[in-house]
Amino acid sequence: MGEFELIERFFRRPAVRSPLGAGDDCALLAPAPGMQLAVSTDMLVEGRHFLSTVDPRRLGHKCLAVNLSDLAACGASPLGFTLSLALPQADAAWLQPFSEGLLALADAHRCELLGGDTTRGPLAISITVFGEVPAGQALLRSGARAGDELWVSGHTGDARAALEVFRGTLSLPAAVFEAARARMETPTPRVALGEALRGIAHAAVDISDGLLGDLGHILRASGVGATLDAGATATLVACGDALEPARRLEFALAGGDDYELAFTAPTAARDAVQAAAAGAGVRVTRIGRIEPGPGLRVLDGEGRPLDLRFGSFDHFAS
Amino acid sequence: MGEFELIERFFRRPAVRSPLGAGDDCALLAPAPGMQLAVSTDMLVEGRHFLSTVDPRRLGHKCLAVNLSDLAACGASPLGFTLSLALPQADAAWLQPFSEGLLALADAHRCELLGGDTTRGPLAISITVFGEVPAGQALLRSGARAGDELWVSGHTGDARAALEVFRGTLSLPAAVFEAARARMETPTPRVALGEALRGIAHAAVDISDGLLGDLGHILRASGVGATLDAGATATLVACGDALEPARRLEFALAGGDDYELAFTAPTAARDAVQAAAAGAGVRVTRIGRIEPGPGLRVLDGEGRPLDLRFGSFDHFAS
């Protein structure tokens, strides 16, 4: 199977938004009048972001999901994406489920495959995703204000729990593990929530490297600090009952691979936040507050700061 | 050196066009009113697209150049790009010249680094580039008409000659080799020519997989055929005097890695084509003609079709 047959067979779709679509030197795209284009890119490498044994269908889903999560964090609506794929060989038994998982998620978000590149090489998948957002309404990391409440969507820490099972440092009941593994392998990008939070949230970020680490991006960009309630954050872990308390807290705060949104909003917007979450079909949890002074403190039930040693995930430090 | 320090140290630039630039979950970008966004993506993998011994500065140049070449083929003006980088390690001695080579070419084209992703993994570089083109004026592969003349910019075949020296199948005088090697390692994207050909050329493609192969894209997309003059194409190879005639023709027609433009224009536009090329500072060569019937024929000096066995480059067929 050659490069062109590979594209034709597994990745060709009728063009919808792009007047050109895959097939020319460039794809052509125009955001609607008054809209800005939001662009993000993420690369997934075998052995680093996924195990060689992962189901290709789940991998196809995940590599687009992590990119859609960046759009969600900006409140942008998906338009399309480009795909660069380095493959050890053109293997139909792998490409068929991979492309199905990828394109099923793309179709669910009406996110069009605009173009791409395939080459032989160690398995790596690089996606650049495009969305649109009304000019001036993007959710930024820099908008948090002292007094804002801090929220997290869905669950955090479960992907990490699944990873630790694969690493052999944790054992979970089979059904609990399968649920955690699904969180790791097929995360749900919070696109509808991000769109619904436009005009409500002051700042947002997507949680890919751990809640504390990614929250740190908001604090630095906004020039503020935050206080977190350890008890509230511990409830973020769906499989938390199966974990000892210290690990449950660590996974919630520094698990990684969560693809949830952390965002801030004024107290007066509590009902609006809950309504946005209900409309998007995802739970949200209030876990703390933005403070004027710098720093990030996690307080126990008696209001005492915890001494936490775990940090954020860094591809070159770990 | 961690991931964030790596980005800060080697890739941070002041934002110009993007209201946000690298640093938030997404970059925000808006094409000017009446403009379409042109998008293309290319991934370069060590051992496949470049040798492990390549000068990192030249590699930085090349991985953006091959993407700018796609914009050029559409007549689009560069706006910005995203960079995904998988690296075996965070090595400053490599990153410094790589980023300098990359950003020097970016600056020369006012093409802004909008965002990116770095991860540990086998060396792979994936770039998605954005340009803008007045709505409806993009140069497409599908616009060629019978009677059009066929043109090629610059030189083809020299990158292939350099590659064959590395492969040990060819020997060249040192100065000739260095010039060919520069063509392979630091191709010049024909951006200014692409822009100047808007409204003049009927169809265009960039030559990355060999002239015949990429010209085939125009012929299929336009539903036409072409006749090429072997004598004219042989003059495309800058180092042609150092090659035996059969190899010179093969390298010109099927060399690969050329990053020149092949385009068609009506006979009446000859002067306009030459003026566009002069303005862009690049030579253009008329090598044939578009025909109504399908197929691609290369004719010798007596008008007899040559029987050519070499084909286009395919990452999964070769």
TrEMBL record, chains A, B:
Keywords, comma-separated and alphabetical: ATP-binding, Kinase, Magnesium, Metal-binding, Nucleotide-binding, Thiamine biosynthesis, Transferase
Swiss-Prot/TrEMBL catalytic activity: thiamine phosphate + ATP = thiamine diphosphate + ADP
Stretches assigned to the PurM-like N-terminal domain: 23-133
List of residues binding substrate: H49, D257, F313
Binding site for Mg(2+) 2: D42, D70
Family: Belongs to the thiamine-monophosphate kinase family.
Protein name per UniProt: Thiamine-monophosphate kinase
Classification of source organism: Bacteria, Pseudomonadati, Pseudomonadota, Betaproteobacteria, Burkholderiales
